[in-house]
Design goal:
The chain has helices spanning 9-12, 19-33, 48-62, 68-90, 124-134, 168-175, 189-198, 210-217, and strands at residues 2-7, 40-45, 112-115, 139-144, 149-150, 162-163, 165-166, 201-206, 225-227. It is of the alpha/beta class.
Length: 230
């Protein structure tokens, strides 16, 4: 049984790496894995605060000539540093190198695989969808700094309301069709298009709520938003 988790950089490294959270997260992961030899986890780690800081620095220096592709590459490198940290913290549970190209990985060694950003054009959400397709996972758990998807940005629209479940078509109307580096969305538009085509289910939930994460992994009632097949 393989589960894919898109692990938002905002929970691993809000500004810098959060050692206390990573330690508690690792303990939860180990407890889950020890519950059955058939359990395997794939983590795709985002860039978080460092990615946005480095991208801002690039745009501040270059100004109007800043290219989205170059900003994306800066963000990709931040995801790789975060992913390497998670891999190192998981020790023998994750024996293989951090996966960079989700289309090239052939074997799943050990019980945990850790992946990072691949190349410009999308976020690590898309890489998570590709790995779900490669290893026959039917669901992607998208962990970020929001507990649920809203009908609009609640910071901008006081009428925005949380959503328990939503179809892919309705979700695409919320996130749009275009990706831009550093864009803060519950699930990126490129990943959304691919997940919809595959018929995947995506669960969006607050990654720092480890009690809720434990419930999701156990198939128990949880707080979050389910996108796609119900």
């Amino acid at each position: 049984m393989t589960k894919v988790l898109s692990l938002g950089g905002s929970i691993v490294a809000p500004e810098g790496p959060d050692a206390a959270f990573i330690s508690a997260f690792r303990d939860l992961v180990v407890e889950y894995l020890e519950g059955g030899v058939e359990r395997r986890l794939i983590f795709v780690v985002g860039g978080g605060g460092p990615a946005r800081q480095w991208q801002k620095a690039y745009r501040d220096v270059v100004g109007p000539e800043a290219a989205d592709a170059d900003a994306d590459w800066v963000g990709v490198m931040a995801t790789r540093l975060n992913a390497q940290l998670i891999k190192a913290c998981l020790g023998h549970w994750c024996p293989q190198d951090v996966v960079i190209d989700p289309t090239a990985v052939e074997l799943f060694m050990g019980r945990v695989m850790v992946a990072a950003g691949w190349k410009p054009g999308w976020s690590t959400d898309y890489d998570a969808v590709l790995l779900a397709e490669r290893f026959d996972a039917k669901e992607v758990l998208n962990l970020s700094n929001i507990a649920k998807v809203y009908t609009a940005d609640p910071k901008l629209d006081p009428a925005a309301r949380p959503i328990d479940s939503i179809s892919w078509n309705d979700f695409r109307a919320i996130v749009g069709e275009e990706w831009s580096p550093g864009k803060n969305l519950p699930f990126d538009p490129i990943a959304t298009r691919k997940a919809a085509a595959l018929g995947l289910k995506v669960v969006c939930a607050a990654g720092r709520d480890l009690g809720n994460l434990k419930a999701i992994l156990a198939g128990q009632p949880f707080v979050g938003t389910t996108i796609g097949p119900q």
